[in-house]
Write a structure and sequence with these properties.
The chain is α/β, with parallel strands linked by helices. The chain folds into two domains: 110 residues, Alpha-Beta Complex (Spore Coat Polysaccharide Biosynthesis Protein SpsA, Chain A), CATH 3.90.550; 170 residues, no CATH class. Helix content is 43%, strand content 19%. Strands 1, 2, 3, 4, 5, 6, 7, 8 and 9 form a nine-stranded mixed sheet that branches. It is globular.
Length: 294
């Protein structure tokens, strides 16, 4: 029997519970319809201590476990708490307001073939609620499976919610060093896994939807910068992360902050001074268009 755990950090998310449970139930049914003997559980990590999670009575088709944090600890800790309490051989870290296709677990699982991470294509919901495709071509998937773009550019995978991950492949360091500011724990995970030579494979099917949160973009970028700094501080403690790579990672983040604050001329000069960061981005941008999907 194959086992799956859907791990969801929960924060004042009562309105999302029925849809979340329904999605996981449909995924179990899709596995059963495909004659795959499977155990599917939903781990809800309640990170809003003053709120009680009431699981609807109709959730008896799947196994649901609610774990309550005594203090608000952030998304990374919630994911790790879920990981420490789940039984699945494969996990998906699904945010409470995002969506997976009814066949997500089935279609991701049949692509595994010994891989540690299966990454599906995804829709990204925009401010006007229209949908844009995340991976626009096969070349963009290749970017996501190399360490360089994460260090010199930005996170290539929109969310761990579009990934099926083999639990045993998740590095101990990611479970030990907890990023308190939400935003970069998934980038931290991919950097560690890529450096450890874990195997990533692509699933071109669109199986995940990242919902628009309505948050302030400037405030989110500030928070992401702080989260990235935390990630870098932990990378310095891990012997298989090259110090030169950490320095480049930090320089890239600083350049992004300075670009946002600068004018056209200062930004051109900044790009010239950081040509070793900018030139690879041109190649990665070009590769995004290779094998383009209609």
């Amino acid at each position: 029997m194959i086992s799956f755990s859907v791990i969801t950090p929960y924060y004042k998310g009562e309105k999302y519970l029925p849809a979340l449970i329904h999605m996981v139930e449909k995924n179990l049914k899709a596995l059963q319809d495909a004659k795959i003997e499977a155990m599917v559980e939903l781990i809800i990590v309640n990170d809003s201590p003053k709120e009680t999670v009431l699981v609807p009575e109709y959730s008896d088709k799947i196994q649901v476990q609610v774990i309550n944090h005594k203090d608000n600890s952030g998304i990374h800790q919630a994911r790790v708490t879920g990981l420490q309490n789940c039984r699945g051989e494969y996990v998906i870290f699904l945010d409470q307001d995002d969506e997976i296709a009814d066949s997500f677990l089935h279609k991701q699982y049949i692509k595994v073939n010994g891989a540690d991470v299966v990454v599906s294509n995804a829709y990204l919901q925009q401010k006007d609620f229209s949908m844009s495709l995340h991976f626009r071509g096969k070349g963009q998937f290749k970017n996501a499976f190399e360490i360089g773009p994460y260090i010199k550019a930005h996170n290539q995978i929109i969310s761990p919610g579009q990934c099926l991950i083999r639990k045993a492949a998740i590095p101990d360091e990611w479970k030990r060093y907890i990023i308190r500011t939400n935003g970069s724990d998934d980038l931290f995970l991919w950097v560690l896994m890529l450096l450890r030579k874990n195997s990533f494979v692509m699933n071109e099917e669109i199986l995940y939807t990242h919902k628009f949160t309505g948050s302030n973009l400037s405030a989110e970028e500030e928070k992401m910068a702080q989260s990235s700094i935390e990630a870098a501080s932990f990378m310095k403690k891990i012997d298989y992360v090259p110090q030169k790579m950490i320095s480049m990672f930090m320089r890239n983040r600083e350049m992004k902050i300075n670009t946002r604050a600068g004018n056209t001329i200062s930004n051109i000069l900044l790009a010239i001074r950081n040509a070793d960061l900018m030139l690879p981005r041109i190649w990665w941008k070009m590769r995004t268009c290779m094998g383009k999907y209609n």
